[in-house]
Write a structure and sequence with these properties.
globular; 14 helices; alpha/beta; 9 strands; five-stranded mixed beta sheet; 251 residues; four-stranded parallel beta sheet
């Protein structure tokens, strides 16, 4: 049985349970650990874990039990960049596969030719404003965006986890009303309490695929470990087309 080493933030009350719920029907084991971090630095747009990366990665089971390491924080990916994040994960645990919500979202969007998105986040200005250039470097244009941080006074991950899905739907609806066509909407943050069934309902209500951090990560992992059938069904359930056999073999 293949295994996932899951790293979540010490402040996130939602991401671990949400990820495990998505992966519950798969033949994969999930091993978890948590990390503290410099929150002031993160609000300023950076990311410094506590303890350091080697100590953090050493708290996961040995490599024989793990095939993929997941750093379940979207904004930390944007703060560090894909290459730097992978470098830090690989330096502590070489020879495995690695992903994060930011990396996974880009992979999913590129796989399904999603080039124009509406973006909703809970982040302050420094992190929120870093998303458009990050996605732009991967050929994805943010044509409409909004942060809930100020209007909902979102300070902690617990605050983010309490944002109701109805508010998420209302904010996405406003973004989509601007008349600029999009291929999908992306709700960014593993701390948002959004279930797979919520994404299905949002997609139906808003008329375009709605993607989210935890679920994009799950989709990416299923491909990394070769569970293409489960990956394709998962994407189809979210309103994305099934991949062809040729595409599957190339992933």
């Amino acid at each position: 049985m293949k295994g996932i080493g899951l790293i979540t933030l010490s402040t996130d009350p939602v991401g671990e349970d949400a990820f495990k719920a998505v992966m519950a029907g798969t033949p994969l084991r999930v091993f978890t650990t948590r990390t503290g971090y410099d929150q002031e630095n993160h609000q300023a747009g950076g990311f410094i874990p506590r303890p350091d990366w080697p100590v953090l990665l050493a708290t996961l089971p040995p490599d024989g039990l793990i095939d993929v390491i997941v750093f379940l924080c979207t904004s930390a990916t944007i703060a560090l960049g894909n290459d730097e994040l992978v470098h830090r994960l690989r330096s502590g645990r070489p020879g495995l596969q690695y992903t994060s919500p930011g990396m996974a979202a880009v992979a999913m969007m590129k796989e399904f030719n999603i080039e124009r998105i509406a973006l909703l986040t809970p982040y302050g200005p420094a992190l929120h404003n870093a998303f458009a250039p990050y996605l732009g470097r991967h050929g994805i244009e943010v044509v409409a965006n909004h942060s809930l941080a100020h209007s909902m006074n979102l300070v902690t991950d617990d605050d983010i986890g309490r944002v109701p899905v109805t508010r998420i739907q209302a904010e996405l609806s406003k973004l989509l009303e601007n008349g600029k066509p999009v291929d999908a909407a992306f709700v960014s943050c593993a701390a948002f309490s959004v279930k797979q069934s919520d994404l299905v309902e949002l997609t139906g209500a808003l008329g375009c695929p709605v993607l989210a951090s935890v679920h994009s990560t799950a989709w990416h992992i299923l491909g990394l470990v070769g569970e293409y059938g489960l990956r394709d069904k998962f994407a189809s359930d979210l309103g994305l087309p099934r991949l062809s056999q040729q595409t599957r073999s190339m992933s």
